[in-house]
Amino acid sequence: MRRLFWVAVGAAAGVYAVRKAQKTLHAYSPSGLAERATGAGQGLRAFAGEVRDRAAWREAELREALGMEAADEPPLSPAEAAVLTEHPAGLASGRDLPDRARRTGTGSP
After folding, report:
1. Is the predicted pLDDT of residue 75 greater than 80, yes or no?
2. Between these two residues, 37 and 91, which has the higher pLDDT value?
3. SS3 of 57-109
4. How many helices (H) and strands (E) does the chain have?
5. With contact defined as beta carbons under 8 Å apart, do 104 and 98 qualify?
6. In the chain, what percentage of residues exceed pLDDT 70?
7. Domain enclosing residue 37, as ranges
8. Which of 52, 80, 94, 106 could form a disulfide with 76 if both were Cys (CB 3.0 to 4.6 A apart)?
9. 63 & 80 share domain
10. Which of 41, 49, 59 is nearest to 109 (CA)?
């Protein structure tokens, strides 16, 4: 009876070791690595989407708290943003600013 018990324990340990080795080999095979990369990419996309949603929500909250209206115009172009970054004092006088920044007086979307 004792021998049968130890044979069963050995067989179970062997099955466990083989399954564990197969999982490890699959994890480091090209298809296993591709599956892991796909999962990580989806996770990053989901995280980026959540960050964008939260940033938009917070911006709306801040605009409301500051008494600013939501901008109906599209965001500034890179050239317009560069001009406003280089000459922030130009907002008051309206000189050296893109046309849209002069019209809104804020220079931000």
Report:
1. no
2. 37
3. HHHHHHHHHHCCCCCCCCCCCHHHHHHHHHCCCHHHHCCCCCHHHHHHCCCCC
4. 5, 0
5. no
6. 74
7. 1-70
8. 80
9. no
10. 59
